Amino acid sequence: MKNVVVVIGSGSIGQAIARRVSAGKHVLLADLRKENAEAAAEVLSNAGFEVSTMAVDISSRPSVQALVAAATAIGDVTGVIHAAGVSPSQATPATILKVDLYGTALLLEEFGTVIAPGGSAVVIASQSGHRLGALSAEQNAALALTPTEELLALPMLQPDQVTDPLHAYQLSKRGNALRVMAEAVRWGKRGARVNTISPGIVITPLAKDELTGPRGEGYRRMIELCPVGRAATPDEIGTVGALLMGPDGAFITGSDFLMDGGVTASYWFGELAPK
User: What backbone torsions phi and psi does residue 222 show, to the nearest 5 degrees?
Assistant: First the structure.
């Protein structure tokens, strides 16, 4: 039996982490669009990795269960890299909550039942989760612990409460970090770990869409006024992903790593603070 690393979302960040943690393992690359997974698989395969692909809709339990079944048929699932999702410029509030919030909870639930002892996972959240104001203790607990199938029925997530795609995205990404913290307890009983990374603006095809989209001016201002003064590369996220998934990160679980060049620092305490 082989060791398997499952990568959900075939974009630049998922690939960057996979390249660092998948040598000698089988990479199962899943994406909503199989052609995207196949394009990424060709790049990884040409770099010496053993890769297979499949389509997955993370907002569908049967689809996620099919992915889990495919992974466990290949071998022991020792790694999960969840880098799929939709951005505020791409979708309605309802779709963002269904994919980014519910879909992440679903993946954590399903893979948490099969992850191998010593295994680890990284979920890509976002700096956006850190720009949402404080939630109540009850809201935090609801996002962390509500059974997956009841999550979207929470009063705080109803259409009259979440009217804006950015708000839906911020709630989803805050929810991802809270969910991972709660799931780390369950994963720990299997001898496995799970963490989130909350990147800022990383130059990927998706980010280029955002930089030229309706929110582009705000994103360009973020880059200009953040302490580091630039956007990130996928490889920089990959380095931290490899730390969290590898032996050097063996004492880290249930944690969220904010990697945003200081955008959040500037938002709360600097030049990016809302007027």
Answer: -55, -45
- Identify the active-site residue in 98, 102, 173, 219: 173
Other beta carbons less than 10 A from residue 20's beta carbon: 16
* 203-259 pLDDT, tens digit each: 988 788 778 888 789 899 999 999 999 999 999 999 999 999 999 999 999 999 999
Which helix (H) or strand (E) is 107 found in, with range?
A: helix 103-111
Catalytic residue among 102, 169, 219, 267: 169
Check if 173 is active-site. yes
Closest CA to 255 of 244, 239, 269: 244
**Which H helix or E strand runs over 31?**
strand 26-31
Domain coordinates in residue numbering, the chain: 2-269
Is 2 catalytic? The answer is no
- CATH number assigned to the domain covering 2-269: 3.40.50.720
Which carries the bigger pLDDT value, residue 216 or residue 66?
Answer: 66
CB of 115 closer than 8 Å to CB of 77? yes
